[in-house]
Design goal:
It contains three helices and 20 strands. With 252 residues, the chain is mostly beta strands. The longest helix is centred in the first third of the chain and has 10 residues.
């Protein structure tokens, strides 16, 4: 009965409007091998399912994708908002294009303009970390290992009131000797969040900062997301991992 009432409420009122689609990238200029984040935002009314077409990529490869939906009220009318986030790797120097940005709902459809990303052979300087995130990273104790990659997952706080948010920061410590031999930019996986909705931010694609510990340099890669708890109780944070390509063992 609750599901039926919800469906009726979503479809009540005016006739469904044309779906709206917007698309944007976090950076318009990247180095070959770096990643760019494409965000597709769709707002639609009515009960028909929303179908977001896969974009046509030239000069870019898909790394991963995720999608989330929610319902919001706009001028008294229920509206379904869907957001698809794709992480793309630049594979060819020149102009990379993202086309075919289209959404369909029932017999209605809408398109967004194609996007162009300039891919260079030289690495672009990383975007600066937000002040609050940098404070968290600055407060971390350095790892003991001088030849292994260490991963830290740190929340900005451990206790909140329902409706507040928490920043969840993942930091990969790469010893300079390891980082200098990488062939690809490290890629994070996770952490999975249970009991909350997580929105991942577009952090620096390369080294976010470097730290001198004694006589050893570490290069830090950072990923962070904002977590919105959905209920009272404990929000569980799963494991995180980082992967990359290194051509040969590090000499001792």
């Amino acid at each position: 009965m609750i599901a039926a009432l919800f469906a009726l409420a979503l479809g009540a009122g005016l006739a469904p409007q044309q779906p709206e689609i917007t698309a944007s990238v976090d950076r318009s200029r990247v180095a070959r091998g770096d990643t760019v984040t494409l965000t597709i935002h769709v707002a639609a009314s009515g009960n028909d399912p929303v179908r977001i077409a896969d974009p046509a990529l030239s000069g870019l490869d898909l790394v991963d994708a995720r999608e989330a939906s929610r319902v919001q009220m706009v001028d008294g009318v229920a509206q379904r908002v869907t957001e698809r986030v794709l992480r793309l790797r630049a594979v060819r120097v020149g102009e990379a294009t993202i086309g075919g940005l289209r959404v369909a709902q029932g017999g209605r459809s809408a398109r967004a303009a194609d996007l162009v990303v300039t891919v260079t052979s030289a690495a672009a300087p990383p975007a600066p970390l937000e002040v609050s995130i940098r404070k968290i990273v600055d407060g971390l104790a350095p790892p003991d290992s001088a030849d292994q990659v260490v991963l830290d997952v740190v929340p900005s706080r451990t206790r909140v009131v329902l409706g507040e948010q928490v920043d969840l920061v993942t930091v990969a410590w790469f010893p300079r000797a390891v980082r200098s031999r990488l062939r690809t930019v490290p890629e994070f996986e996770g952490p999975d969040v249970l009991g909350g909705w997580a929105y991942q931010h577009s952090g620096p694609a390369g080294v976010a900062m470097s730290r001198l510990v004694g006589d050893r340099w570490y290069d830090l890669f950072v990923q962070y997301e904002t977590v919105f708890p959905l209920q009272t109780g404990t929000v569980r944070v799963g494991r995180a991992s980082v992967s990359t390509a290194c051509p040969s063992p590090i000499p001792s």
